[in-house]
Design goal:
The complex is a heterodimer. By secondary structure, chain A is α/β, with parallel strands linked by helices. Chain A has helices at about 1-10, 35-50, 65-80, 95-105, 110-125, 135-140, 145-160, 170-180, 205-220, 235-240, 245-265, 275-285, 285-295, 310-320, 355-370, 380-390, and strands at about 55-60, 85-90, 225-230, 265-275, 300. The longest helix of chain A is centred in the middle third of the chain and has 20 residues, at about 245-265. The radius of gyration of chain A is 26 Å and the shape is elongated. Chain A starts with a helix and ends in a 14-residue tail after the last helix. Chain B has a five-stranded antiparallel beta sheet, with helices on both faces. In chain B, strands 8, 9, 10 and 11 form a four-stranded antiparallel beta sheet that branches. Chain B has a two-stranded antiparallel sheet with strand order 1-2. Helix content of chain B is about 45%, strand content about 15%. In chain B, helix 4 (about 85-95) runs antiparallel to helix 5 (about 105-115). At the A-B interface, helix 11 and helix 12 of A face strand 8, helix 13, strand 9, helix 14 and strand 11 of B.
Chain lengths: ~400, ~350
Amino acid sequence: MNRSFIGGEYKLSRNPFPPAASGIDVGKDLYIPPKWKERIEKYYNELRHGKGAKAFPIVGEYGSGKTVLLKGYLKNFFENKRIKPIYFENPGAEFYDLANTLMRSLGRHEFSKALWERCKEYLAEKTRLLFPMTFNDMLSTLKTKTDRENKARELLDVIKNKLKLTDDEEVAYRLGLMIVETASKPYFSYRDFVAGPKDSLVAEGEEPKYFKAIIKAIIKIYGVDGVAFLIDEFEEVAFPKRMTRKQTYGYLATLRSLIEISESENLWIIIAMTEEAKEETEKLTPPLWQRFTHQQMETILRFEPLTPEESKELIIWWLNRAREEDDFKEYRDKLFPLPENIENILESPDIRSPRRLVRIGFFTLARAEKEEVKAPIPLEFVEKVIKELYPPQIPKGVENDKQ
Amino acid sequence: MKKRETLWMRYVDLEKIKDMLHLVYENNGELRAGTMEQLGIKERILVKREGGKPLSHSSLYHYRKVMEGLDLVKVRQNFYYISEDRRVQNFIELTTFKKNMSLGAKEILREIIVGNNDCRKYFFDVFMDEDNYTLEDFRREGRYVIVETRSMREPLSVKENRAEKNNENIHKKKAGAVILRNPSGKEAKLKTQDEINAIYWGVRLWALGLEITDEILTSFAEGRIIYPVNPDFSDKILINYLLNKIKANNSDSEWVVLHIPTFIKEVALSTRFSVNKIKNFLEDLKIKYPSFTMFIPSSTMFIDIKTPFEKQDWAIRNSYIHKQGIGYISHLRIQRKILKEVEA
């Protein structure tokens, strides 16, 4: 009965707003305000030809749409420009956290295999066979440690001199090791990227070089022009609890390495952070922050409250999700069943964030449907829902005693 | 009589001091130290807030010594008498047993504390250029003071090396000197644990509790800032300050974002208004102009990384606005249009 009411009265196949506005499935295209898109295009065009870092922060409070922008828009944006986007969620502050997340997302077997395929072009001259050797065949020939070490040295030469992924022998050797050790260890483990231990894949003190080589490898393997790191909630893990000074330096060193690599390679670094994370990072190291935001250019994509017009567009975008059927097509791109003058109750910028608007949309429709409110839903009804969800503040007393 | 070599000031609840003073007043010249303490316990004054158990012997001792040190009472032949000082008599008249002190009573207590020689010598003098001053002078002319601790002076590497050498936990080392330093260079060095307990954890907290001073701590490296509070609060001054901030912002956005702890620090140091008054002003502004203002919350993890010491968290968090159900607010976003609205 309810479904028929929502269809008959509201011209919607269902309530299109997700009940929990956080954690929306952003695999699909979502509403992005045009001004955000314009700003991104501007930064991209300005930075891609410049000598500085190809990086900029996205600053916004919780629920302002940072994740949606990274996953739902920037991913496609970079893909369309032949740049491989890699999305990181809570990557961690240290270099090995980032390397670990990156390599795990690519997969050890896949990455090693693909790298070997590129190396094979040069190795094949020495070992030409009737049938091309597969990656697994090659691994099966490496029975002893000496075999693996010899192969790693062979690969070192190709990685360094032919593929030119790095000019550092040790880094090239570690990449070679990554390939030859795949048989005995098909998955990456956390310790692989902690520089120092015996079997580490990273040379101590050479983390940025190693990372740079990996970026170059990704570009070669996937046949793309560049790589984009879309880093979400960096600070959430960067500052999981009280940060020791050592951890703070780790966070800054990682950020510095990324920015340095992006200055020389086609690596794009987009980091979503909250206002306070921005404030703190800027205070911790002003010169690094200036490199990150290109000084006078101030490449900071700062999320501000949507305008009332953008708020209406967002609501309409969601309503259209439940108007795909032909029966409802004449109601597409309309605010109906919500009141046309809804902007009158969207004066407060607090509620003009994507997450809050979606939540308001869901509860308004759910309640109106339950109470079988006739369309268009009265403005007062929506206002009541808003007040319940986000109660207005009550003035404080004059005296505010210290705790 | 052997001269006392340790300082008498300690952190005590000034409301309890007031109630004890009423007991002395009611039993003027009849109480000895022991009987006064017993009466305080019987009247549920000198007892712990949680569980109601009597305070420890040393705490009972400190309550008595603070009353004596502040000259609220006189001891003659081991019996306690109420002081004949006019201010103390007024204080008794303006207060009621077991009722919170009125604003007028608090003002008298402030005068007594700021006028006390020991409190001046070890704490209030460092704020002042002149030696002769009243509470009013202190409020009007007192400079701010920065608290410097040993951990701020030593780089991390030095501490780590020492810890390795001594094979000891760096957190368990002895307390170092605390230096209170005003911008003109005048300083008070608290070298011994007794001085730290008496001044840093004693007089400083009385002054803070009575709003003679207020404190800001925005980062560990910068240190705790203590400043005399100007009680003549004016929201006009604050609104002008805020509007000038907005005007000075050159970004092309219609919104201006202000970092609240930085704003509070700047305003507090230039106006001497208390942190709470400034926070209340911002909260009222949000209520008064909901269409032009917006609070941006922050997670406590960002607040807490500003100091390596957990005990300083509260002081750091105090520079943020706390909203029930939302958490800590780190920024205020203001629409430029507010300029027209306010100036109209």
